[in-house]
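This part of the workshop introduces the protein records we will be handling. To make this concrete, we reproduce a full record directly below:
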Amino acid sequence: MNVYDGQRIASMLRGRGYTQTDDYTDADIIILNTCAVRAKATDKVFSALGRMRTEKKPDAIMGIVGCVARESGADAFRRVPELNFVLGPQSYHKLPEILENPDTRLFNIDLGGLEKFDEMPQMDASPTVAYIPIQEGCNHCCTYCIVPYTRGREISRPYDDVVRDTIHAANTGAIEICFLGQNVNGYKYTDEDGKIYRLSDLIRSTAKLDAVKRIRFTSSYPTEMTDDLIDMFRTEPKLLPFLNIPIQSGSQNVLTKMNRPYTLDLYIDIVDKLKSARPDVQISSDFIVGFPGESDDDFEQTLEIANRIKYINSFSFKYSPRPHTAAAVMPNQIPEKIKSQRLYKLDALLNEIQREFNESCIDRELECLCEGADKTGQHTIYRTPYMQQCIVNIPADTAPQIAKIKITAANKASLRGEIVE
């Protein structure tokens, strides 16, 4: 979501005569697009601002947009007096106001609605992978999560608006469409005639676009993985055989405390249905270790579910208390040392599972999407249908955008391959 927001902000600024620079000390406007999902992310924002305030040009405009702006509110101006604007994740379309009045301060963290999608100009050119937000906010209110506070309650964009953005992306360079939402598979829009549209309808309409070769979506909520969506993995070959379904914990006790209203049996049943619909489908997940009250046995159950599902790629974190959440004031907070030990053990298991899957891909031929040159400029990076990084020994300027690649080597982090002639 932040990548998409950043692309739209950059496009808006280019339309006003700005060009992008990698050197913030030479910039006329500095915008930090922020995430507040963990305390460490917020800390990094203010650490960066502390450095930039002394190194930027004296007349440079500087501000923050996104979830940290919403979380910190007006206190951000107190912490960093040099800030010119603080705009929440649904207010960044108000940036032109600060450009027109650079001597004033702009503050807006209202949750609002979907105005930013209507008021920001379309991008002239789409990246190869186009991110298309279809809904914002979340109604699930997990006890550890700040998203309902920073992004608001769940709201789905009109179906026709999403289709318009998808067609525009396909017509301006996109080969892969990734639908976005804090609860993306909860997308549900009812039009004036009472017709209900779901994520499966968006996938079906997008698959008809010849320019689009790959479709995916993130991030899913287990109980929203409805049968119509699961069936798309059976019937639509453009839908990649890979999706993220966060489980967070393998302990029913911890899931209840997290306010995650699904059982482990239901979660496993969803995965089984997906694999029945498309046998080659693979799953990634999110994990939180050290949630308040998590016992050693609770943690062992998380290891068990990871071993059972065999997640090929996962994001795992130590529990981080966030303001405005119920878990932050729960008793039995886990000491940092224990959280670190558990995370180390879980990561070791997840890394081994990922390595095993990557090695199982050796000698397979996979249709991959070109991502561009690596840091050396001598090789090209592709992404497999499972979002693995595959390095091919050809220069990027001669690399086809879509290529069938035979995997020749693998480790935990990446694959190597050769284009099949």
In short: The first helix runs from residue 2 to 14. The chain has four domains: 2-108, 125-240, 247-257+269-360, 365-419. The mean pLDDT is 95. The chain has 14 helices and 19 strands.
